[in-house]
Amino acid sequence: EGAEVAVLDKDERAGKQCLDLLREAGGNPLFMAGDVAEPAVLERFAAVVTARFGGVDFLIHNACLSRGGLLRCDYEDFLYVLRTGTAAPFYLTKLFLPLFRPEAAVVNISSTRAAMSQADTESYSAAKGGISALTHAMAATLAGKVRVNAVAPGWIETADGFHSPADRRQHFAGRVGTPEDIARAVLFLC
Known about the structure:
Elements (H helix, E strand, L loop, with lengths): L5 E4 L2 H13 L5 E4 L5 H15 L2 E6 L13 H22 L3 E10 L12 H20 L4 E6 L27 H11 L1
Parallel strand pairs: 1-2, 3-4, 4-5
């Protein structure tokens, strides 16, 4: 859609694939490899974005993972998931505060897991609950300066072969979502 894109991803291979797709679409994207759970990485990313673009129109927080829950997640893993899925969006938004251009938007990716969890998913569910609450608070704090919204997908078919349970009653559209469904919602909010 003509945006200049900066991507921060822990998975260098996936990041480079994303770069290739963006270049094929005619863009000149920026990629930085790094772990969003590390504050120094976020600080470096903010500095690189500032040097390259000078400002930010849209910020999309998409990073999260699961390391299980009460049955298989230790304390450090739990904290790592919270740093990735909730603390990093807080800190990167804070770092970008002076960079937001007029009518900027922040879009957080939450999940239906924030309110409709499954067994042994406490790390992911807590992070997604946190990003949902963070969205409300940031929207209040940044009102009049930056629009802040969240998209909360349910089951999504992904390239890694994930398949949802057979029970599709929670899917009002009558099908499992796709990554493109999420992207279109994010684009609309931007």
